[in-house]
Amino acid sequence: MPSLKDLRNRIASVKATQKITKAMQMVAAAKLRRAQEAALAARPYSQRMAVVLSNLAHAMEGRDDAPRLMRGTGKEDTQLLVICTAERGLCGGFNSSIVKLAREHIEQLTRESRTIRILCVGKKGFDALKRNYGDLIIETIDLRSVRQIGFGNARGIADKVLHLFEAGGFDVATLFYSEFRSVISQQPTALPLIPCKIEDSGEKLDLGGAIYEYEPDEAEILADLLPRNVSVQIFRALLENAASEQGARMSAMDNATRNAGDMIDKLTMSYNRQRQAQITKELIEIISGAEAL
Asked: What distance in Å separates the CA atoms of residue 61 and residue 287, rounded to the nearest whole number?
């Protein structure tokens, strides 16, 4: 059984930890608002670009001069996984959920005998994957010195991916990140990056029977928009990750603060009981000694 001094030291230690977790929760709450606003502001642009690409892609159907970023290499032998995680921990299951989704994808590709290459954006993803898949990691991008994510950071990552694609380094690229839903909900997401996945946006232009022509033509517009779309999607992923990270950290630190409070209550009760038992024992000894006289 621990002594009274040990219990006092333990209570003081847990109280100090509780102050730290409470401060981290408040800092995460302050950062979350800005990160959430940035993530929500980036979504309309990304969605509108998807609509434009969808309309252009449908106009290019059946043509042989479609850009390579849209039609791909025609193979799926070599796969590039761009895994975006945080640079720091203490944010609950945020990093582990993204890594878990990436692991499942890696295992699936391994069963299909695909060649896998991994580009890690964030230290935590690299730390989690280096033990089992260290030989597959081609580069790790460190963003710890970046105070606020900007489009330039995403463009730098996109340039690396595009350069690798042009050099024949991979056939298919997939982007992994966590989509922000709410403070307590973040959804790990795998987004096909290259070739560009063109989905039916549901928005059809009513031309009234008119012929719709592009100037310059669709191929030239797509040749400019598709590389930009890679940067936009990576930028959105980084912003979604930033908001998800702060939301997950806020929830994790709130739970840690509550758990520390419960632990302090239990330790205080143990301390009071042991102190009362010691006082009772001393009184019994005093009374017994007095009666013996």
From this structure: 100
Of residues 104 and 1, which shows the higher confidence score? 104
- 3-state secondary structure (DSSP) of residue 291: helix
The tokens for 268 are 């205080």
Q: Which residue has the tokens 């950290």?
A: 249
Tell me which residue of 32, 243, 236, 49 sits closest to 154, measured CA to CA.
236
Q: Which of 178, 166, 154 is nearest to 229 (CA)?
A: 154
Most confident of 47-51, 116-120, 181-185: 116-120
Q: At 102, list the tokens.
A: 């990436």
Q: pLDDT digit string (tens) for 195-214?
A: 887 665 555 555 565 566 66
Rg (CA), the chain: 28
Three-class SS state of 131: helix
Give me the helix-helix angle, 218-292 and 151-166, nearest 10°. 120
Residue where the block lists tokens 């890594």: 99
Quote the crossing angle between the two packed helices 94-111 and 218-292, to the nearest 10°: 130
Residues 6+ apart with CB under 8 A from 137: 118, 119, 120, 126, 129, 130
- Interatomic CA distance for residues 203 and 40, integer angstroms: 21
Residues designated catalytic: 91
**Which tokens go with 94?**
């945020």
pLDDT tens string 86-117: 998 889 899 999 999 999 999 999 999 999 99
- For residue 192, count other CB atoms closer than 10 A to its CB: 13
Compute the residue count for the chain.
293
Which position has the token pair 């460190």?
Answer: 142
Contact call for residues 80 and 161 (beta carbons, < 8 A): yes
